[in-house]
Design a protein that fits this description.
The complex is a heterodimer of chains A (about 70) and B (about 160).
Chain A (H helix, E strand, L loop, with lengths): L1 E4 L1 H7 L5 H8 L3 H8 L7 H10 L4 H4 E4 L7
Helix pairs in contact in A: 2-3
Chain B lengths: L1 H25 L13 H24 L1 H6 L2 H23 L7 H30 L8 H22 L2
Helix pairs in contact in B: 1-4, 2-4, 2-6, 5-6
The chains are: A mainly alpha (about 70), B mainly alpha (about 160).
Chain lengths: ~70, ~160
């Protein structure tokens, strides 16, 4: 199980916002936003809430559990 | 000649310490203070400087182990790394917070610290072998450990941060 997200889609739905602009808006670095979008970094609860609040969405509208590994069981 | 070099190095170290202290005390009170902030460039620069200081320190330690300790050269090599951390301290004082890194930077540094700890053991085993074979002087153990740890930590942090 991995954490998936629709952060990139949310950015593009928000006037094609850049990663840099989003990073500045929520108080993190651009590298953090890139890492989250690529699934390489799991954000903290606080950061997830900040992102959700910024896009006026709930946390589970942006983040979800990806069950891609379930078939291995 | 060696005494003169040692005196010059000590003078540079004391002068750097005094200037750094004055800057830490004065700069946050000036109008320049509003420009002081942590950013990606500063974070990357800090780790690049750490890598460079680590490499130079390690090479000098292995080539001139007696010289690097007796002439206080290891402190001189560390000056750029210390200065950039004085700037970090100025940012923290200006922003009135210790929390200047974002969570991924903290995560990368924590991961780097664990890797540095792990790799420092074989590094010190290697030093022990050099010492046992009388290839390297025992006096060099501290700068060797310091620069090895600095190099591994800075390189790992930078690699983790940039690896996206």
């Amino acid at each position: 199980m991995k954490l998936g997200n629709d952060l990139k889609r949310c950015r593009f739905d928000n006037d094609a916002m850049s990663q840099e602009a989003l990073a500045r808006a929520v108080g993190v670095t651009r590298q953090t936003i890139i890492s989250i979008e690529k699934g390489r970094f799991v954000p903290s609860t606080l950061l997830s809430l900040k992102l959700a609040r910024f896009f006026n969405k709930s946390v589970d509208e942006i983040f979800y559990i990806s069950d891609e590994d379930e078939n291995q069981e | 000649m060696e005494e003169i070099i040692e005196k010059i190095i000590k003078f540079i170290l004391v002068l750097t310490f005094i200037i750094a202290g004055l800057l830490y005390w004065l700069l946050p009170k000036t109008k320049l203070a509003k420009h002081f902030k942590m950013n990606e460039t500063l974070f990357v620069a800090t780790n690049v400087i750490g890598i460079i200081c680590g490499i130079i320190g390690l090479v000098v330690t292995l080539v001139w182990p007696q010289f690097i300790v007796e002439m206080h050269l290891w402190e001189l090599i560390l000056i750029p790394f210390v200065i950039i951390h004085v700037y970090w301290a100025i940012i923290m004082k200006t922003r009135k917070t210790l929390d200047v890194l974002d969570e991924k930077q903290e995560y990368d540094m924590t991961k780097a610290a664990a890797i540095t700890w792990g790799l420092s053991i074989p590094a010190m085993v290697f030093l022990f072998i050099l010492y046992d074979k009388e290839i390297l002087s025992g006096i060099a153990w501290f700068p060797y450990y310091l620069f090895t740890a600095l190099l591994i930590f800075s390189a790992t942090t930078l690699f983790s941060f940039k690896k996206v």
